[in-house]
């Protein structure tokens, strides 16, 4: 259910970087711990993006695994279920290395041929 | 027409986080400690506040409440007997309201909150175990209430929420005698998802355990001040880490 607001946040961020150009593709990096349902996010992205420069843009979501490190025994591992206790030494001195990302990684925009373009091609 | 790739590398919630940082700066400027209080609908946030905030001002902590609700002022009305500043913030824009508070909504209500007259501001979020966990509002601490009628597995189903909170208050323990509810299993699940969480067991109805929660609230401003002093550099990094690269 949070995907609607997350979609709005994505569209806002994308438009900020689009510089009034039409957006054709958006690449996101989303950590597993964000509890984002991809299909729902795509569904809402299409709705929120309608009548904006994001309309019709494709969404690519790069999954980032949830990786933890134990500060007590230095063990590092990936989790598939929400268990934040070290399986090796049993302590909870655990830090999240990856998995909390909610990042717009890059966008693709349409440029006019004759427009000045400073971006690499 | 050709396509250009633009490198963004920006947290999509940066816009919210920037406003949250502005709220935080206003709170800090008035020396107000802010708690974001979250829960599922009906867990007993307002009941807990009714119990815990009564007499807090006389005990030396001047407290105010920002009541977030989809619509209506039912909760604010209930708290009005406490004679503390209570500000109602509705998320309804006429088409059914938002399911959470975000930094901008809180900012829009700040003008009505007498920050100079309080030490502690409790922001009662909209009842919901998903969205409120995503949106920082400029708070110093996040806490949640969960109740013994909700099921022991809730921390495993809503880890984002349970992980975001430093305090989890288990409410309605007066009902335990009528339920097949394993409160120890709930607490174990909370700690599995969030080993750093502080867990309290209370009954807002009978008052059992509420003193411990009240003591936590009273101690919070000094604790936050000490923590901020220790971790000054980390906070600067968190609050200003919205640099982005375009190529």
Please tell me about this protein's structure.
The complex is a heterodimer of chains A (121) and B (247). By secondary structure, chain A is an alpha+beta fold. Chain A has a domain of 74 residues: hypothetical protein PF0899 fold. Chain A contains 2 helices and 6 strands; from the N terminus they run αβαβββββ. In chain A, the strands form 2 sheets. Chain A has a 3-stranded mixed β-sheet, with helices on one face. In chain A, α1 crosses α2. The model of chain A has no long low-confidence stretch (mean pLDDT 91). In chain B, α3 links the parallel β3 and β4. Chain B has 9 helices and 8 strands. Helices cover 36% and strands 20% of the residues of chain B. Chain B has a 7-stranded parallel β-sheet, with helices on both faces. The C terminus of chain B is likely disordered. Chain B is an alpha/beta fold. Chain B has a single domain, classed as 3-Layer(aba) Sandwich (Rossmann fold). In chain B, α1 packs parallel to α4. Classes of the chains: A alpha+beta (121), B alpha/beta (247). Chains A and B meet through α1, β1 and β6 of A and β1, α1, α6 and α7 of B. β6 of chain A pairs antiparallel with β1 of chain B, so a sheet runs across the interface.
Lateral arrangement of strands in the main beta sheet of chain A: 2-1-6
CATH topology of the domain at 3-65 and 99-109 in chain A: hypothetical protein PF0899 fold
What would CATH call the architecture of the domain at 3-65 and 99-109 in chain A?
A: 2-Layer Sandwich
Q: State the end-to-end CA separation of chain B.
A: 19 Å
- CATH class label of the domain at 3-65 and 99-109 in chain A: Alpha Beta
Given the structure, what is the number of helices of chain A? 2
Give start-end ranges of low-pLDDT stretches of chain B.
Answer: 235-247
Largest sheet of chain A: 3 strands, mixed
Q: Please tell me how large the radius of gyration of chain A is.
A: 18 Å
Shape call of chain A: elongated
Low-confidence stretches of chain A: none
CATH C-level name of chain B:
Alpha Beta
Care to count the β-strands of chain B? 8
Largest sheet of chain B: 7 strands, parallel
Give the helix proportion of chain B (percent range): 25-40%
């Amino acid at each position: 259910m949070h995907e609607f607001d997350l979609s709005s946040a994505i569209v806002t961020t994308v438009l900020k970087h689009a510089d009034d150009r039409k957006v054709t593709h958006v690449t996101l990096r989303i950590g597993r711990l964000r509890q984002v349902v991809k299909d729902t996010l795509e569904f809402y992205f299409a709705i929120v993006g309608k009548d904006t420069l994001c309309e019709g843009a494709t969404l690519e979501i790069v999954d980032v695994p949830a990786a933890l490190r134990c500060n007590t025994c230095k063990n590092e591992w990936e989790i598939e279920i929400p268990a934040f206790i070290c399986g090796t030494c049993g302590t909870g001195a655990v830090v999240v290395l990856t998995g909390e990302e909610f990042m717009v990684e890059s966008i693709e925009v349409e440029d006019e041929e004759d427009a000045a373009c400073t971006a690499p091609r | 027409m050709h396509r250009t790739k633009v490198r963004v590398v920006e947290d999509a919630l940066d816009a919210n986080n920037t406003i949250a940082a502005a709220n935080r700066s206003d709170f800090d400027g008035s020396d107000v400690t802010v708690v974001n209080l979250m829960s599922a609908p009906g867990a007993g946030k307002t009941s807990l506040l009714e119990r815990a905030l009564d007499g807090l001002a006389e005990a030396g902590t001047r407290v105010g409440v920002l009541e977030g609700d989809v619509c209506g002022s039912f909760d604010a009305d209930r708290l009005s007997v406490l004679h503390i500043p209570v500000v109602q913030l509705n998320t309804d824009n006429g088409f059914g309201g938002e399911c959470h508070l975000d930094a901008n909504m809180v900012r829009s209500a700040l003008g009505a909150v007498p920050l100079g007259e309080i030490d502690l501001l409790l922001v009662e979020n909209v009842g919901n175990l998903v969205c409120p966990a995503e949106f920082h509002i400029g708070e110093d601490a996040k806490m949640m209430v969960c109740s013994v009628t909700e099921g022991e597995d809730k921390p495993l189903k809503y880890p984002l929420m349970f992980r975001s909170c430093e305090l989890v208050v288990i409410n309605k323990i007066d009902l335990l005698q009528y339920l097949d509810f394993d409160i120890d299993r709930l607490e174990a699940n909370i700690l599995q998802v969030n080993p750093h969480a502080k867990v309290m067991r209370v009954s807002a109805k009978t008052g059992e355990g509420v003193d411990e929660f009240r003591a936590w609230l009273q101690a919070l401003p000094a604790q936050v001040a000490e923590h901020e002093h220790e971790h000054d550099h980390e906070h600067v990094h968190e609050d200003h880490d919205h640099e982005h690269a375009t190529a």
